[in-house]
Design goal:
Elements lengths: L7 H16 L1 H9 L18
């Protein structure tokens, strides 16, 4: 059986698996279900006295 003999659904499954393999499983799962993280840094606050 060759790829061109597959149905449209079969081709979509193959494309999805190839895409996941290319970007990596952890990256794919993080992009699909990860919550946005809060920034791990803060800008310092300083009162500047002028004059």
């Amino acid at each position: 059986m060759e790829t061109m003999d597959l149905s449209t659904a079969g081709k979509v499954v193959i494309m999805t698996l190839m895409f996941i393999g290319k970007i990596g499983m952890f990256t794919f799962l993080f992009s699909m279900g990860g919550k946005p993280l809060k920034h791990a840094y803060r800008y310092p606050k300083e009162r500047i006295i002028i004059g």
